[in-house]
Amino acid sequence: MKNFIKTHKKQCLIGGGIFLALFIIIIIWLFILPIFSNNKYGDRLKGIEKHKISSSTIEDIESKIKENKAVDEVTYHNEGRILKFIIKVTDMKVEDAKALGQPILDTIDDDDKSYYDIELLIDTIEENENYPIAGYKHKTEEEFNFGSGA
After folding, report:
1. Who wins on pLDDT, 119 or 43?
2. Is the pLDDT confidence value at 97 over 80?
């Protein structure tokens, strides 16, 4: 082996250099370039096209929640696979406030509920020691789970 390298020194250096250059290019292609893509979710949103929540569904949810006279405002925001609802209320019992999440579960299809996580934040406009209340429904769960403070 030593004789081969000594007699073909130039060819071995060129071959080693090409091998090293290819190795570096492969490392950059596999590990560095994906960092610069603009999809911050990677593959986590795979299949989201099949589970679009329409604006009419959101409007329906908002109108059902606003039927309660104690509800002042309902805000919706979709972030990836999380549907976020913020509800502002005035003077409402905590148990009644927790029930405000039911129209969300009743309106969204079961197929979509098993795809999205749903966050629910209930707050008051005036200061209240019982609020804010945070509820969360994981895609595998059937109902909202509320924080231990609520």
Report:
1. 119
2. yes
Q: Supply 55's token pair.
A: 């604006």
CB 102 within 8 A of CB 127: no
For 101, residues 6+ apart whose C-beta sits below 8 A from its C-beta are 85, 118, 120, 135, 137, 144
Give pTM, 2 decimals.
0.68
Distance between CA atoms of residues 17 and 48, nearest Å: 45
Three-class secondary structure assignment of 20-45: HHHHHHHHHHHHHHHHHCCCCCCCCC
Non-local (6+) Cβ contacts of 135 within 8 A are 98, 101, 119, 120, 121, 122, 144, 145, 146, 147, 150
Residue 19's pLDDT band, with cuts at 50, 70 and 90, is very high
